[in-house]
Amino acid sequence: MTSHERTDDGRGTGETGTAPVASSEGAPPAALPAPTAPAAAAVVFGPHVALAERFAAILADTGVSHGLIGPREVPILWDRHILNCAVAHEAFPEGASVVDVGSGAGLPGLALAIVRPDLHLHLVEPMLRRTTWLSTTIAELGLENCTVHRGRAEEFAGTLTAPYATARAVARIDKLARWTFPLLADGGTLVALKGESAPAELAAEEKVLRRLGMVEARVVTYGAGLLPVATTTLQVTLGARPAPRRASARRSGKRS
Ligand SMILES: C[S@@+](CC[C@H](N)C(=O)[O-])C[C@H]1O[C@@H](n2cnc3c(N)ncnc32)[C@H](O)[C@@H]1O
């Protein structure tokens, strides 16, 4: 399991804490100063780098004190978290709507919203503490291209649809596909930030993914030569689904 791979129940060695991180006295951990942005931040974020720095400062401050990330993540905020997520923006075309499932501390959702103001990010997250923090952070950053949806991905089938979905450190690809495919429009693509396990997960689950409607899968890496560890994504594209049969026509025996 790589540092980006966690199951939906929060087990694993991922970077972001899934439970409030308390000191031995039970008090919330103190806020830490955000590390200085590396040179790659200006390359990746361009004119939006100041906003990305503000996001880093919020993650190091209330992200830690509210238990969304562990204090040990702060020194690696840029390379392992913010930049790791932001470089994947290349997967999305101009103006796309993207559903980020299991957004947690806004990773990858808020990093993508900052680097690409043309995208619209739908952040799906079941935990109230996290959705409250996400909404506050969006307001603080002045982002107008994000919508927070509280609930499990499965609950939004039929009400939230987009051409793209994304997720990091949420579940294995088979489970992620079951959760996200119902949110994707016909021909839509799931861009899962997977790390080095991507090819193995694809090989292990390809049959299941095809049964669920996948027509194409690709492993695509972003940020090579720029980040200490490039971001490897598993991109799974759906085919067109059969149109639902018209119940009223069937009941009346009419032919259309
Ligand atoms: C390990 S955290 C990862 C958070 C963030 N994506 C990151 O990379 O730091 C997994 C997140 O997925 C959320 N989650 C778990 N099951 C979910 C589901 N069925 N639908 C949507 N989110 C879910 C959890 O509440 C948690 O915030």
Q: Would you kindly provide a brief summary of this structure?
A:
It is found in: Cytoplasm. GO terms for molecular function: rRNA (guanine-N7-)-methyltransferase activity. The protein has eight helices and seven strands.
Salient structural properties:
256 residues, alpha/beta, Rossmann fold, seven-stranded mixed sheet, 8 helices, 32% helix, 20% strand, disordered N terminus, binds S-adenosylmethionine, transferase, rRNA (guanine-N7-)-methyltransferase activity
Question: Can you tell me about this structure?
Answer:
- It is an enzyme of class 2 (transferase).
- Its EC number is 2.1.1.-.
- Keywords: Cytoplasm, Methyltransferase, rRNA processing, S-adenosyl-L-methionine, Transferase.
- With 256 residues, the chain is α/β, with parallel strands linked by helices.
- It has a domain at 91-241: Rossmann fold.
- 32% of the residues lie in helices and 20% in strands.
- It contains eight helices and seven strands, in the order αααβαβαββαβαββα.
- It has helices at residues 39-45, 49-65, 77-86, 109-115, 128-141, 173-180, 198-211, 247-252; strands spanning 97-101, 120-125, 146-150, 162-168, 184-193, 214-222, 231-238.
- The N and C termini lie far apart (53 Å).
- S-adenosylmethionine binds at residues 6, 8, 10, 14, 16, 18, 101-105, 107, 124-127, 130, 152-154, 168-170, 179.
- S-adenosylmethionine is lined by residues 6, 8, 10, 14, 16, 18, 101-105, 107, 124-127, 130, 152-154, 168-170, 179.
